[in-house]
């Protein structure tokens, strides 16, 4: 079967098994997303627990990150969404007067993501398959491959676990009102956790595929007994 993440692996018929990191992108985006929360905490500390200072620092860093992303070819829409997320977080904190509420949108988004990925597995439309189907230009052709659907479902549970870990940690720190710890957690649970999720889910994905499967880029139409196995 495949190595961790499927890197440099091949099935017996010669089909290369690509890593999820190469298909979905590396840690760059997750690292960028962790910078504004860190800037918020630094500004908050330097300003003597001032939410205004923290918000200003987060927005400034977010703008710089956005410019850098634009210069390296990122889509303007994605950059604007990231900037808007920081603006919303800053406005929430300023409105409630609680610095920890800057991290509330991130907490809630992880709750929503955990639920969405879980539901997708239950209804047999695992989001990992949906995302990779889009990336590989397959649309929904992968749905005709029973083995691939089942493998995507099982690998998607790793992504559910990622969001659950974040919800547990962010939730506990938010309830405790620890701004600094939340900013540190945002870094630790950003690209390191994303990278680990890519590697582990890639390993699970290829481990669940038959040895003679042609690979993610070549879904096949076939049925297997025990359709309930698709639920992962």
Descriptive terms for the model:
232 residues, disordered N terminus, two-stranded antiparallel sheet, disordered C terminus, transmembrane helix, mainly alpha, 9 helices
Question: What order do the helices and strands come in, and which of them pair?
Answer:
Blueprint: E1 9-10, E2 16-17, H1 20-24, H2 28-46, H3 51-71, H4 76-96, H5 104-122, H6 127-135, H7 146-176, H8 179-188, H9 191-208
Antiparallel strand pairs: 1-2
Helix pairs in contact: 2-3, 2-8, 3-4, 5-7, 7-8, 7-9
Keywords: Membrane, Transmembrane, Transmembrane helix
InterPro entries: UCP010219
Transmembrane segments: 41-65, 77-95, 115-136, 157-177, 189-209
What does this 3D model show about the protein?
InterPro entries: UCP010219. Pfam families: DUF3159. The chain crosses the membrane at residues 41-65, 77-95, 115-136, 157-177, 189-209. Mean pLDDT is 85; it is low at 1-15 and 225-232. It contains 9 helices and 2 strands. Helix 7 runs antiparallel to helix 9 (191-208). A hairpin with a 5-residue loop joins strand 1 and strand 2. By secondary structure, it is mainly alpha-helical. Strands 1-2 form a two-stranded antiparallel sheet. The protein has one domain (4-231).
Summarize the structure.
This is DUF3159 domain-containing protein. This protein has one domain.
């Amino acid at each position: 079967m495949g190595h961790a993440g499927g890197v440099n692996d091949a099935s017996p018929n010669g089909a290369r098994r690509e890593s999820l990191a190469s298909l979905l992108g590396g840690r760059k985006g997750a690292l960028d997303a962790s910078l504004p929360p860190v800037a918020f905490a630094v500004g908050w500390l330097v300003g003597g627990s001032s939410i205004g200072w923290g918000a200003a620092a987060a927005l400034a860093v977010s703008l710089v990150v956005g410019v850098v992303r634009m210069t390296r070819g990122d889509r303007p829409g994605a950059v604007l969404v990231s900037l808007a997320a920081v603006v919303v977080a800053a406005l929430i904190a300023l409105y409630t007067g609680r610095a920890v509420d800057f991290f509330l949108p991130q907490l809630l988004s992880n709750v929503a993501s955990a639920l969405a990925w879980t539901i997708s597995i239950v209804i047999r439309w695992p989001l990992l398959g949906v995302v990779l189907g889009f990336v590989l230009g397959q649309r929904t052709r992968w749905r005709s491959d029973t083995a691939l659907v089942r493998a995507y479902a099982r690998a998607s549970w790793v992504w559910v676990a990622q969001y659950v870990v974040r919800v547990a940690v962010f939730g506990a720190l938010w309830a405790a009102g620890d701004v600094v710890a939340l900013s540190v957690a945002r870094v630790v649970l950003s690209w390191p956790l994303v990278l680990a999720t890519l590697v582990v889910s890639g390993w699970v994905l290829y481990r669940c595929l038959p040895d003679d499967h042609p690979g993610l880029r070549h879904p096949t139409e076939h049925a297997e007994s025990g359709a309930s196995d698709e639920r992962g």
